[in-house]
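Journal club prep — side note

Before the paper discussion, L.F. wants everyone to see what a predicted structure for a comparable chain looks like in token form. Sequence:
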Amino acid sequence: MSSTYGYLPISDEVMQHPIYITGVGMADVKPREQYPQRRHPSLYQFSWEQGRILPEYQLLYIKSGAGIFESEKTGVIRVGAGTIVVLFPSVWHRYKPDAKTGWVENWISMNGRLIHQMEDVGMIRENDPVVQIERVDRIANIYSLLIKEIENISEEYSIEMFSVAMQLLGYISEELNTDSKARVYKEEIPNRTDNDIHVRSATRYIWNHSHHQISVEDVADQLPISRRTLERHFKEYTGYSIHDELKKCRLSRALRLLRETNMPIKQIAYIVGFSNLVHMDRAFKLSYGVTPSDYRKQALLGNKVDCCVLRKG
């Protein structure tokens, strides 16, 4: 199986945008190959036996081949080339290619008020998540553009990736041929990328592997420069340390899970990469001034907790 994927840094500020991307990927699954492979962060990994529940939406595009999809809302559905399966937050699901054919899949994980509005007005529905695509060429091009963009991303996402994601939602809206008048629009966001290839590579590695017990040394080992040089470059281009980026990644994912799921806090700590709950509690309190439990309580009450800025150190 050949695959490419990337998970993006998501700040509290980014989560205020109408749509934001959390990950992009593709996989070419050959006939009779093991599926899925265990390469992804725990939050996104799944097995056929256990299935999976996501905290966000995912648009799974089957470019070629065929297989089956199952969710608690739909039962078992056959899916094939030229279909997009909308995966909904908090809805159990699983899927796999046929052993005889395999398939080529592309996916994009996203969230934000725009896609929630699409669900609210009935454009996308949990009990009818499969969209048959007529203009497969333009959908395939969109996913290809996103895959290319993920290779060059450094911090959060570029305006190009944001615009392409908006275009994808627009195409899907057309394919649905609905009478709903939900409007897909563009909104300017800051372009926060930089030009240092080593910083981009380090950031990408952190956001793809921070669910493991990785250290600054582990990050440096992935690059053809010394740890000292990498730390200097990273500080120069971002204004903070590699250790800060590791903490930022784990805490931002913890924020989303605390706010958007009912998952036990101890389980969240392990999923996002902390060695234990005590370490996450300490990091949370130092960074945000509240405990994970207090943050979840305030979020449930609809109170805004200022978690936009991490304290450095």
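L.F.'s comment for the group: Residues 197-300 form a domain with the Arc Repressor Mutant, subunit A fold (CATH 1.10.10.60). Keep this in mind when we get to the figures.
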